[in-house]
Amino acid sequence: MNDIDTTTADTTPADTTPKRLGVIGSGDIGSGIARLAIAAGYEVVIANSRGPESLADLVAELGPRARAGDARDAVEFGPTPVLAVPLGAYESLPRDAFAGRAVLSTGNYYPHRDGRIARLDSLEVTTAELEQELLPGAVITKAFNNILFHHIPALADSTPRTALPVFGDDERATAAVSAIVDDLGFEPLDAGTLAESWRTEPESGAYTPIYAADPEALAADHLTAVAAPVTVARLRQLLSASQRADVAARRF
Question: pTM score, two decimals?
Answer without folding.
Answer: 0.91
